[in-house]
Amino acid sequence: MNQRNFYTFLQKHILLMIGLSLLPGLAYIGLAWLNGIATPAFIWYVLVIAVSLWGYSLYRQYNPEHMLSDALNRWYMKMMIFFYIIFALWSLVFVLYAPAVKSHLNYIAIFTQLGAAVVASTLLISDKRLFFPVLVILMLPLVIYFMLIGEWYGYVLSVFATVLWGVLLYASDKSYQLLQENYYQAQHDSLTGLFNRRYFVDYMDQLIKRVQYSQKFAYILLIDLDHFKTINDTLGHEVGDKVLIEVARRIEAYCGENHVISRLGGDEFTIVSGEFEEMLHCREFSQDFAEKLLQRLKEPYVIDRHHLYLSASIGVNGIGRKSSEARHFIKEADIAMYEAKAQGRDGIIVFNEALAKRVEYHLELERRLYFALEHNEIDLRYQPQMNSRKELIGCEVLVRWKNEKFGFVPPSEFIGIAEKTGLIIELGGYIMEESFKTLKAWNEQGIVLEQFSINLSVRQFFHADFLVQVEALTEKYLTDRTRKLIVFEVTETIIIEDMYKIIAIMNKLRRIGIAFSMDDFGTGYSSLGSLRQMPIDELKVDRSFVSHISKYESDKLMITTILAMAKIFDLKTVAEGVENEEQFEFLKDNGCNVFQGFYFSKPLEQKAFERYYLNNREQRRIEINEEHE
Ligand code: C2E
Ligand code: CA
Ligand code: CA
After folding, report:
1. Which superfamily does CATH assign the domain made up of 365-628 to?
2. pLDDT at 1 over 70
3. Dihedral of CA 334/336/337/341: which sign?
4. What is the best residue among 383, 402, 417, 455 to mutate for testing ligand 1's pocket, by most ligand atoms within 8 Å of CB?
């Protein structure tokens, strides 16, 4: 149970109890005065005032956010004593009034005692530890009193009072259990029995305040299992649930007593550490702790005879002096966790300021990218593609973004953002339209190319309107001849979707004359099998292999293998990132068809490309003439 909430609940009752003692207390003094027992009653009232003052100071002392658990426990003990004493004072009134049979004050005494029992039940029933002793203080004098009457009705009343006592005890026990159960359910995850998100956030809020007050340090771990969805999708949710339970057991066993562990939902878990005196110690400890935990989580799982191997991405964040809200710390741990995912999963990232800055930068890029089209900040470049005789035969369209604040932002940075936000649909549409316009203009100027390549994002490719959009744009700008020049470059990540869907979309586009190229070939996961199934016309040998030609034998081997394979599958090959003669010669000798790279030209603006084309044609004419002479 969350003790702090419960203590806060009890704290309010201190005031109520003081009120219920001081005000009726005055009436009791009056009655006593009328019946000649003023002095003891007066002394009693002074005691009530003294205890009330003490109670009030306890009320003021309570500060759950800044009290460590030791201090809280001490406070609770004092508060228990306060309630014992104040109810004992009411029993004292009973002892004082009960003998005054002649003035019938004994009736008032009995009523008062029962009334006090009702008050105690109302205020304290949910706290067994407090309520049971208070009941003894209130009910025992009553039972004894009835017995001491010595008549038959006295014994009957004594039995009745004992029964009432028992009923109250029973009620307290039940309501305590119910409360515990409710608390438990409200704070725990029903699948794993760990704490839930709600508890975790509450706990973090308190921890942060406490840590700041006491100048200590703590850390949180945010754990997200890698590819957990695959387990759910392939083996079913039942197996998935069992995996989550097993993960929870492992975390619990690994953490021991000192940590608060919760499941935030899905396959996300958090661990909050205990408190540390030293920041450095806390930080070192947290990393070591996370690494060992990750090892533990990666041990094989045997579930329903399946042998499963899991890994996790873990974000770590320190909690310390920096004043902040729980939300904030959790968000930062989340950023670190996502960074671990981005760096290939199965890893640990500790949140730091540089990471925060980068995330901030990305958010700012995201905001500004939104207006890039509107502000005319998007431009296209065309990088020449040559054949083995160094004749210009085509180009690749590459996008550029020039922003007021950040200047030139490379596509490697903003394409990913545009994909994530969905802006790529609009941006991709714009790129396609602008490049079709260029192709149309070139065609009219007599610039004859063999191919015209445009990069496509996966998200664009699978967008519902994609086909319609391409058809409309081809209709609008391209002729039967020029549309056959179009090549869409896709990457191997496209294979995340099912093959039939990919093939269906590709075939529809091929019908209007568009060809496909597999970009960055060799860097992704595509298998030979999927390559053979897909209606691809061209392979692009990734720049990373080309640039290492002179350095690594393995890269040479990779290239010759890709080129040989392309020949078997009857695919055209384009090498990208050709930067020198040596690379060009090597690629040419091994049967590569098309070459693109800084060796020939950087990506050019439209007009510059036109000039490059004319120069290249002129150059060729001179060379041909020389050959003839
Ligand atoms: P990519 O498709 O692999 O494009 C080739 C990249 O290599 C281009 O970078 C190009 O400028 C660069 N490059 C070309 N020759 C050389 C060379 O000899 N040496 C070196 N070091 N680099 C060379 P860029 O323009 O920065 O584009 C980066 C990536 O951004 C592209 O990689 C592509 O994945 C993406 N991208 C660019 N334009 C578009 C676009 O219009 N749409 C989509 N969806 N993605 C695009
Ligand atoms: Ca490309
Ligand atoms: Ca590429």
Report:
1. EAL domain (3.20.20.450)
2. no
3. positive
4. 455
